[in-house]
Design brief:
The protein has about 200 residues and is α+β, with helices and mostly antiparallel strands. The protein has one domain. It contains six helices and nine strands, in the order E-H-E-E-E-E-H-E-H-H-E-E-E-H-H.
C-alpha cells in the first residue's frame, strides 16, 4: 500500500524571532529563497513570503516554512532553506524545531477498527451505531519526541485516512537546529516505515 505525502513543513520556535528583518529583499540578498517571490507581506510583527513552491511565515514566536508543491526535489530543498535562514540569524534564541509530514493513506472500510482493537459493542453504546475511529500515538525516534495522529478523512472520503506526524526536538541553539534539519529525510523515512508497519503489516 502506498502513502501519499500531501503536506510537509518545518517549524522553528524561538523566544523572539524578528519578523521586521524578514523582507523579500533580505531573503533574496541572503540567498535563503532563490525562487521568484510571488506574494509578500512585511510588517514589524508578521512576515509572509510565498513563491511557486514554498511559503514562509514568521511571527515573534514561530517560523514556519511549508512546501506548496510536493516533489522529491522540493522535499529535499525544504530543510536547506530553513538551514540557510537560521545560519543568517544565529543570535536568535531558538528553543525548538518541529519536522511535520502529512500523509493520505487508502484503507478498507472500518479497517482502523481492526488495526486498533477496541470493545466495539461498548463504543457503539458510548457513541452511536455508526462511528469512526482515530488514534494519537506518541513514540521516540532518536532525540525526537514524535506524535502521530491518524484519523478518517470524513465525511467525503471514508476510504482514506490522514496520518499527521510531528517530530519535535527542544533545541538550545542554532547548531542544534541545523543538526536536526540534517535528519529531515531520515524522519520522513521513519514516518513511512511506521505507516508501513501499521497498514501493511
Amino acid at each position: 500500500m502506498g502513502f501519499l505525502l500531501y503536506g510537509t513543513n518545518i517549524v522553528i520556535l524561538a523566544k523572539n524571532h524578528n519578523p521586521s528583518i524578514i523582507s523579500k529583499e533580505w531573503l533574496e540578498q541572503k540567498g535563503v529563497i532563490t525562487e521568484k517571490v510571488l506574494n509578500f507581506t512585511h510588517t514589524p510583527v508578521f512576515s509572509l513570503i510565498e513563491t511557486e513552491n514554498f511559503s514562509l511565515v514568521v511571527d515573534p514566536e514561530r517560523l514556519q516554512i511549508s512546501l506548496k508543491n510536493i516533489t522529491p526535489e522540493n522535499v529535499g530543498h525544504l530543510p536547506m532553506i530553513v538551514s540557510r535562514y537560521v545560519s543568517h540569524l544565529p543570535e536568535t534564541p531558538y528553543n525548538a524545531i518541529g519536522l511535520n509530514y502529512l500523509y493520505e493513506v487508502p484503507i478498507q472500510p472500518d479497517s482502523l477498527k481492526h488495526i486498533f482493537e477496541h470493545d466495539e459493542a461498548r463504543f457503539k453504546q458510548i457513541f452511536s451505531e455508526k462511528y469512526h475511529l482515530g488514534e494519537i500515538i506518541f513514540f521516540n525516534f532518536k532525540d525526537f519526541r514524535v506524535k502521530v495522529g491518524i484519523q478518517p478523512m470524513l465525511p467525503d472520503h471514508p476510504e482514506k485516512v490522514t496520518a499527521d506526524f510531528n517530530f519535535h526536538f527542544d533545541a538550545k541553539n542554532v547548531e542544534d537546529i541545523k543538526q536536526k534539519l540534517e535528519q529531515y529525510l531520515e524522519a520522513k523515512k521513519k514516518a513511512e516505515e511506521v505507516l508501513g508497519g501499521i497498514f501493511n503489516g
